[in-house]
Amino acid sequence: MSQYNVLQLEVGNMQNFSYLVYSGSDALVIDTSFGGAKLHEQIKRHNLNLRYILSTHNHFDHNMDNGFLKHLTNAKIVAHALSPVDKDIAVEDGSKLVLADLTVDVIYTPGHTKDSVCYLLQNECLFTGDTLFVGTCGRVDLPDSNPKDMFNSLRRICTLKKGIVIYPGHDYGATKTSTVQRECSTNPAIALNSLEDFIQYAL
Q1: pLDDT in tens, 108-136
Q2: CATH code, residues 5-202
Q3: pTM: predicted TM-score of the whole model, two decimal places
Q4: Please, how many CA atoms are within 13 Å of residue 47, restricted to the half-sphere of its CB?
Q5: CA distances for 18 relative to 96, 122, 152, 162, 190, angstroms
């Protein structure tokens, strides 16, 4: 079984989470947010080679320090092909990234934005950005949002293995992480059976 570490950092004044994932000396970051300095400190502390900077979607609070961290590490920025994020690698649904002996699968989950993705690590950890939070979901009332897409994306997440740990993009819930089983059983945004009910809830 592959050995890896997931470091969750709460950064900035919007309760954002940034993530550092590493296996051996190779590392990736998910959503630099406002955490570039903290992330770089951890990268140096653990003597890591940062290979990728993954963006879950284009909102500034998730990408603020992409350029800062790329300049310091020469890591490649990864975002969905539709994303306006300045990127080195464009991914789509089903794309895979390899880090040491780890595999990251890209799951396209539009709704909060049209470029939203989740990153599935080893079929064990799901980094959901602003698609799914603990106990709720991301906003769908923004110019780039689509409630129907979000409704479908949340249901797609519920087709994944129930024990997968969910790592959200913000610290908005009662706990800092969750599982697919817990969210798909208790999250009110997912409990709604019709698109009409979801739109009423989300808007």
Answers
A1: 999 999 999 999 999 999 999 999 999 99
A2: 3.60.15.10
A3: 0.97
A4: 1
A5: 21, 19, 26, 23, 24
